[in-house]
Amino acid sequence: MGRNAGTRSSTGAMGRRTVKHCARLIVLASLAGLSAGANAAEFSYSYLEISADLSKTRNTAEAPLEDDADGRLFAIAGSWEVFDKFYVKGAWSRETKEFGNEVAGAPVDLDSRQTMTTLGAGYHIEAGDRTSLYAEALVVADFEVEHSIPLVTPSASGPPTVTTTQSVIEGNGLGGALGIRYWLSGNVEIEGRLSRTHTRGDVPRTGGEFSDSETMLGIAGHVHAGGGLSVGGYLSYSKHTDVNFDDIRKLGVILRYHF
Question: How confident is the model at residue 40 (pLDDT cuts 50, 70, 90)?
Answer without folding.
Answer: low
